[in-house]
Amino acid sequence: ITSLEIGIVSTIAATVIGTLLAIALVRHRFRGRGATNLLVFLPMSTPEIVLGASLLTTFIASTDLGFVPEGVVFPMSIRTIIIAHIMFCISFVVVTVKARLSGFPRHLEEAAMDLGANEWVTFWKVTFPLILPGIMEAGLLAFSLSIDDYVITSFTAGTTQTFPLYIYGSQLRGIPVQ
Fold it and tell me: Measured on CA atoms in the order 113, 117, 123, 127, is the torsion positive or negative?
């Protein structure tokens, strides 16, 4: 149940954030766009053990360096797992939604606006239904990555037990993982 909770929450958050980021990267020109693209691909190309150790260091340093208010303890828990899973799933969502948006027919949006629709109506009636399959694909990919992740979860879990951690612990005790 803990793994499902983590998977669902991190999938929803990563899908929303990643979709908005993908739309911004494809549709708008802004300073730092190239650097943002690089930062999006970085978690995908970084080995998971490096990413897990970096996130662990971030969570420990945020408490030690005073980024978290004095007296507030930021222990490793389900919250840190969810934050970590959101962080590495966003990249996969952005890449998937960007691929869907790359061949998007902009003339359909222009036609809707010519017929009197504003930007908000155009987005919900034209753009969103056309990119929804890409968003769903990205969400399913994020969920499968989150539910299956062992390495990053082991670094950020603390005492929280997820299904991959349980399976690994069973294997260590000699119980067949089947």
Answer: negative
The number of beta carbons lying within 10 Å of the beta carbon of residue 174 is: 6
Amino acid residing at 166:
Y
Beta-carbon contacts of 113 under 8 Å, excluding residues fewer than 6 positions away, are 119, 122
| pTM of the full structure | 0.82
Please, are residues 156 and 59 in contact by the beta-carbon 8 Å criterion? yes
As a whole number of angstroms, the distance between CA 104 and CA 112 comes to 14
Query: How do residues 6-26 score in pLDDT, each as one tens digit?
Result: 999 999 999 999 999 999 998
133 neighbors 82 (Cβ within 8 angstroms): no
| Residue pointed to by tokens 């996969």 | 92
Query: Cα torsion at 15, 45, 84, 152 (round to 10°)?
Result: 130
CA angle in degrees (0–180, nearest 5) for 96-10-67: 115
Sign of CA dihedral 8, 14, 20, 26: negative
- Look up residue 71 and give its amino acid: G
